[in-house]
Specification:
- The protein has about 350 residues and is α+β, with helices and mostly antiparallel strands.
- The chain contains 12 helices and 6 strands.
- The strands form 2 sheets. Strands 2-3-5-4 form a 4-stranded antiparallel beta sheet, with helices on both faces. A two-stranded antiparallel sheet has the order 1-6.
- It is globular, with a radius of gyration of 24 Å.
- GO terms for molecular function: oxidoreductase activity.
- This is Nitroreductase.
- It comes from Bifidobacterium longum subsp. longum.
C-alpha cells in the first residue's frame, strides 16, 4: 500500500482535507516566493539596469512618444517626462558601449527623429527640454536613425474592408486604435465577436473568462480615469473588461493560468473584433491596490476574478494616425532545438 493511501485511510476525512489544503497553501507560498525572486532580480526595476532592462525602458518610453505623435489634436512640445527618460537611458547605453544595432536602441532613436520631424512639419520649434536632454553623440544617432522603426501610420479606407479576412490578414491589419467614429457600436456585433472568440484555446476546457460590455458613458469615463492610460483622447463608444475566474483552477501549479487563458481569449477577441471591422485598443489593468479596489466597486467585480485587460472599441475612423509599434524580427525571438 502506498504511504499516501495509508495516511488517507488512517486520518479522518475532514482532517485529511485540512492537511491537503495546508500542503497547497505552503506550495503556493513557495512558488510565489520563487516567482518573486525571478521577477525582482530580472525586471527593469530601479537598480536593475543591464542591457536588457535598459532596452525595455527605451521601448517603453518610445511608445509614449508614438502615442503622443498619433493624436489628431497634436500638442506641440509634449512629452517632457519620456523625453527626459530617453535622454538618461540613451546616455547610459552609450556609456556602457552597447551595440547601436539593437532593436530597442533603433526604436528609441527613430521615435525621437519622428518627434523632430513632426515639429518641423508643422513649423514649431522643439521645446527646450528636448534640446537639453541629448548630447551631441545621441543627436547624431537620432539624425542617422531608420524612420521605419517608429513614428505613426494612418488608417486607410482599404483597411475597412467588409469582406471576411483570413487569419493572416487579421494579424497583419490589426492595430491599436484610440480614436473612433462618433457613433455607437452595435451590441449584436460585439456579442458576435465574443461568440467567435470563445473558440480560443483554453486549458482543459476550463474557459475561465468573463467579459463586461460597457456602453454607459459615465462608467466608461470613470473606469478609464481610474485606469489612467487614456489621456488626451475622446472616450470610446464601448469598453470591454476581460477578467478570469480563479475558481476555474485546481491547485497552486495553476496560479498563473488565469492570465494565460485570459490573455489567449483576449487576443482572440481582438482578432474577432477586427474581423467585424471594429477598431480596438487593449488597455492594461495592472492596477495598484487603490485602482483595484475602485474598479471592483465601480463594476461590481468579485475578489474571485483577476483583471486581464480593458479593450476600447469603436468604428474605425479613416485618416487617423496610430503608433507604428514596429515589431521585432521572428528570428530574434526564436530558438530552434534540434
Amino acid at each position: 500500500m502506498k504511504i499516501k493511501t495509508f495516511v488517507r485511510d488512517c486520518i479522518p476525512g475532514p482532517m485529511y482535507e485540512k492537511l491537503r489544503r495546508l500542503k497547497s497553501l505552503l506550495l503556493l507560498f513557495v512558488l510565489f516566493m520563487k516567482q518573486d525572486r525571478r521577477f525582482s532580480k530580472n525586471a527593469a526595476l530601479p537598480g536593475n539596469m543591464g542591457q536588457k532592462q535598459l532596452e525595455t525602458q527605451l521601448i517603453f518610453f518610445s511608445h509614449q512618444i508614438e502615442k503622443g505623435l498619433s493624436h489628431s489634436n497634436f500638442r506641440p512640445g509634449f512629452g517632457s517626462r519620456p523625453i527626459y527618460a530617453l535622454g538618461v537611458c540613451l546616455k547610459k547605453w552609450n556609456n556602457h558601449g552597447y551595440s547601436k544595432d539593437i532593436f530597442g536602441f533603433k526604436v528609441a532613436t527613430s521615435a525621437l527623429k519622428a518627434y523632430i520631424d513632426k515639429h518641423d512639419e508643422i513649423g514649431c520649434v522643439l521645446p527646450d527640454f528636448f534640446n537639453s536632454a541629448f548630447d551631441r553623440e545621441i543627436m547624431k544617432d537620432i539624425d542617422a536613425s531608420d524612420p521605419s522603426f517608429s513614428g505613426t501610420s494612418v488608417i486607410s479606407g482599404s483597411e475597412n474592408s467588409s469582406s471576411m479576412k483570413t487569419y493572416s490578414q487579421i494579424l497583419n491589419s490589426r492595430v491599436s486604435i484610440r480614436e473612433f467614429e462618433d457613433c455607437p457600436v452595435s451590441e449584436s456585433t460585439i456579442e458576435s465577436a465574443i461568440s467567435l472568440a470563445m473558440r480560443a484555446p483554453t486549458v482543459c476546457n476550463r474557459q475561465p473568462q468573463a467579459v463586461r460590455v460597457i456602453f454607459n458613458k459615465l462608467i466608461i469615463k470613470q473606469a478609464l480615469t481610474i485606469q489612467g492610460g487614456w489621456r488626451g483622447y475622446e472616450f470610446p463608444p464601448a469598453l470591454l473588461l476581460v477578467t478570469a475566474h480563479n475558481s476555474s483552477f485546481n491547485n497552486a501549479i495553476e496560479r498563473n493560468e488565469p492570465y494565460v487563458d485570459g490573455g489567449i481569449f483576449s487576443m482572440a477577441l481582438l482578432g474577432a473584433l477586427e474581423s467585424y471591422d471594429l477598431g480596438a485598443c487593449p488597455l492594461n489593468t495592472m492596477f495598484d491596490i487603490h485602482q483595484d479596489g475602485f474598479t471592483r466597486r465601480l463594476l461590481n467585480i468579485s475578489e474571485e476574478e483577476e483583471f486581464i485587460m480593458y479593450i476600447a472599441v469603436g468604428k474605425k475612423k479613416v485618416g487617423v494616425s496610430h503608433p507604428r509599434s514596429f515589431r521585432k524580427a521572428a528570428e530574434t525571438v526564436t530558438t530552434v532545438i534540434r
